[in-house]
Amino acid sequence: KKNNIRNVSVIAHVDHGKSTLTDSLVAAAGIISLDNAGNQRIMDTRDDEQERCITIKSTGISLYFHLEPELLQNDLSIVNNISDGNEYLINLIDSPGHVDFSSEVTAALRITDGALVIVDCIEEVCVQTETVLRQSLSERIIPVLSINKLDRCFIELSLAGEEAYKGFLRIIEDVNIFISIYHDKSIGELELNPIVNNVCFSAGLHGWAFILSEITLLYKANINDKEKFKKKLWGENYYDSVKKKWHKKNPNGKYVRGFVKYCFDPLKVFITKIIEEKYAEVNILCEKFNIKEQFQKFRLKTKGKSLMKKLLQFLLPAHKSLLIMLIKHLPSPVISQSYRTEIIYEGPMDDKYSKSMRTCDANGPLMMYISKMIPNSDKSRFIAFGRVFSGTITSGLKVRIMGSNYIKGSKKDLFLKSVQRIVLCMGRKLESTDYIPCGNTGALIGLDQYIIKTATITDQVNENAYPIKAMKFSVHPVVRRAVNVENPSDLPKLLEGLRKLSRSDPMVQCIREESGEHIIAGAGELHLEICIKDLKDDFLPGVSLIFSDPVVPYKETITTESNHVCLSKSTNKHNRIYAKSFPVAEQLLKDLDMDLIDVKNSVELSNFLVAKHKWDKNTTKNIWGFGPEPSLSNLLLIGTKSIQYLDEIKDSCVSAFQDVTKEGILAHENMRGVIFTIVDLELHADSIHRGGGQIIPACKRVYTASFLNSSPKIMEPIFSVFISVPLKHLGAIYSVVSNRRGKVYEEVTKPGNPVCEIKVKLPVAESFGFSNELRSSTSGQAFSQCIFDHWAVLKSDPMKENSQANKIVLSIRKRKGLKPELPDPNNFEDRL
What we know:
Elements: E1 5-12, H1 18-28, H2 47-52, E2 59-66, E3 87-94, H3 102-110, E4 114-120, H4 127-138, E5 142-148, H5 150-155, H6 161-182, E6 199-203, E7 208-210, H7 212-218, H8 226-232, E8 238-240, E9 245-247, E10 256-257, H9 258-275, H10 279-288, H11 292-301, H12 304-315, H13 318-329, H14 333-344, H15 352-359, E11 367-375, E12 382-390, E13 392-394, E14 398-403, E15 414-418, E16 421-426, E17 429-433, E18 435-437, E19 441-445, E20 455-459, E21 479-485, H16 491-504, E22 509-512, E23 518-522, H17 525-539, E24 545-547, E25 555-558, E26 566-569, E27 576-583, H18 586-593, H19 602-613, H20 617-621, E28 623-627, E29 634-638, H21 646-663, E30 674-682, H22 692-708, E31 712-726, H23 730-739, E32 743-749, E33 755-763, H24 770-777, E34 783-793, H25 804-816
Helix pairs in contact: 1-13, 4-6, 7-8, 11-12, 14-15, 16-17, 21-22
């Protein structure tokens, strides 16, 4: 029943309680016991996740629920779901909150339709909340909000009702602001509001939660009009208990706000009385809520907090509110795919595949997207986890696999194979099944040889299907470490291990350098640490490995136009090439990084450069190429007209350009932001004297010379670091940051919140061990997160002896085994 499926991912900042809240839903489906919910964290499947108490990999689970229809009536919703019957299937994916693993979040969001955003009611909206919200809205995923850890309001901080209400209001307003900035108009209006029941208040650890309609049910004996009462529970509605009247204003604070009187205060009284163990008063409260028998029963076995957990789980069970919210306010695959197909499918919007994806047709052609590979229990093979967008996949079916490098019409990265088995993911266990219809998530066994990270799967006969678009990640792999084996005979094992590692994580890159080093690149220190641990323990047990210190990639660039036109002759002295180089404008570099334009589409590119960057129309037609792959931040222009044989040597010039920008000159690091212009050419009339063997070396030399004559500099990657720290430790933070060439550029304190948020720009080279130093200088109370921000030019001159840049360049040259002397421009130029 495709109308009764919900695909949900759980997203939030680190430690805001994702896995803990998910437990309540799992318990309600009968997989774990209610007593354990909140402590077991069933979604953290790996041992190191349980130890560190953070989620590292996103985990999927399919839950089956039977819901009474009266729970779902009389609520307005933006999503007009049609439901047939009252049995529901919820495919839930619990995702990590730490920024180093945000690639896992991207993979989870691609295959779901709705997101449950969780925010800590005391820390409020944090950096990562904002990042994941932005990611989900750009994929057109509808959010619902849960404000978690309410028990902290009562027990730790004992806030007054009015303060708590203002805090909740701030959270909802912040989230709504993000939604209005980033959301796509095609979904329709999106707004979170407790009255509509798409905001829920919860305490994951104790397994209780409420939405406003649940609260109205508690008071149903005393009210006539439920809807009217519910609306009074949020917003500017005040109750005058003397005259028993509602007011819109509260002149001198003598009336009580509806939310405080009916939701917050009763809970607060109830909880404090239980913890203080004043059972006579609790008894009276339990009578009012009709749970007196349960109270008498639980009281014999437990007391204090565990008694409170049991009573509240009975009175306001968390799964009930969450289920109403998920089923009522998140779209079913049928509804969601109707507006998501156009942003995830590469082909035209009127072929049979996109039509079938739009309507979510189980009898249409098969289209399935594999978003990540999961290692099986003994880490030897991988299963391919993904979602069926149209058609039905059955075991034994012959399928056509289009990998991430597949281009329509070519044979590259394309395989025809048959599926061995199909399984459903249930947290730690896998359950076999015969088929998966569209709208569901599941995993395939037996295709791990052909899929590297992601792929699109379709029937063998669908030769004209386009693949589903690849995912865009919000972080870059900028932290690298080289890895090697102690015993050379283990090299083949190492290669196999690295191949497995790059499958197991959507983000990590395993690169082989020309010097023979094997390099692992990750998004941050923590991410890299986990990858290395996986490599050691799971993929290469018993092989002794050597890891280098962390290595930071640099880029080479120029800051001025070259001071003269450089000339180079080919080896046979029959061809001459003249060239200059210029730096690329800052704004254009940013646009190239953001992938705002398709570089291969020349018309679009030309219009963009003329309109936004004020280029000359003729110059845009003379762009010969962008390089190096994949970053494309350098350009090659041809600045001459009417030269004979120009087209014949174009390929040679471009391939030399690709080599020079990839190899670099100062330290063999990639170039960034350089435009090479070929000003003039003199070519030999006979084609045999101007082949690639003559032109390519000449081009390389002239590019090198013009680069060295334009005051070259090196660029280093900069992290944007968010530090949250108690106010009393501020001084310590500033000293740690300034010791590491960091700059503090913003400091935010929220009213009534003892924690201060600091934003710092910190060079990646200085970031190793940064979080440990922070913790030791603030006695463990600071928490930091690094996100790659931009490339910054180092001010000092790399050509000058003993400058900072010079030291960096020399150390890189030493590591790569190059000559310690820097290149001299005079060796690359020829005299006339």
